[in-house]
Amino acid sequence: MHVKNILSAKGSNVVSIEPTATLETAVRTLTENKIGALLVLGPDRRVIGILSERDIVRVLAQHGASVLAQPLSQVMTRKVVTCSPSETIGVIMERMTAGKFRHVPVIEQDQIVGIVSIGDVVKYRLQEMEHESAALRDYIQTA
């Protein structure tokens, strides 16, 4: 299966923020949307960074609460690993595991078309396993 299958089920809505927004604003946005990461987009709507809950914990531990007034451009992760809709779920799972991150923006023709989290991948994989299990049970019962 492919990333596009996950996006077709969950949708392509992506919550994003500008690099000039403060970390405090980003924390509020994450909380209001009940999500674990925000894409930081430049003026051309291209991904220039990502801010995850893990990033927030790291900068708070390093710099204390005063960092909440800093712009995201100072605290976001700049090296963003992305994928395309045509990549397989297995490849994305391996990439997330190796890189120790939980969110991957999906890019097509240099534009953001969605974001996939480890939760999305696990949910999709569990559904896939349930379908395979049901198919095997049906096969065994009819054999």
Q: What this model shows, in words?
A:
- The chain has 143 residues and is α+β, with helices and mostly antiparallel strands.
- The chain contains 5 helices and 5 strands.
- A 3-stranded mixed β-sheet has the order 1-2-3.
- A hairpin with a 5-residue loop joins strand 2 and strand 3.
- The two termini are 27 Å apart.
- The mean pLDDT is 93.
Distance between the termini: 27 Å
Q: Please tell me how large the radius of gyration is.
A: 18 Å
Number of helical segments? 5
Task: Report the sheet with the most strands, covering strand number, pairing sense and barrel closure.
Answer: 3 strands, mixed
Strand order of the largest sheet: 1-2-3
Total strand count, please?
A: 5
Shape: elongated
> What's the rounded overall pLDDT mean?
93
| Alpha-beta content class | alpha+beta
Relative helix content: 40-55%
Range of strand content: 15-25%
Q: What sequence of helices (H) and strands (E) makes up the elements? A: HEHEEHHEEH
- Return residue spans where pLDDT drops below 50 for at least 5 consecutive residues: none
Describe the structure concisely for a colleague.
The protein is an alpha+beta fold. The chain is built from five helices and five strands. The protein has helices at about 5-10, 25-35, 55-65, 90-100, 120-140; strands at about 15, 35-40, 45-50, 105-110, 110-115.
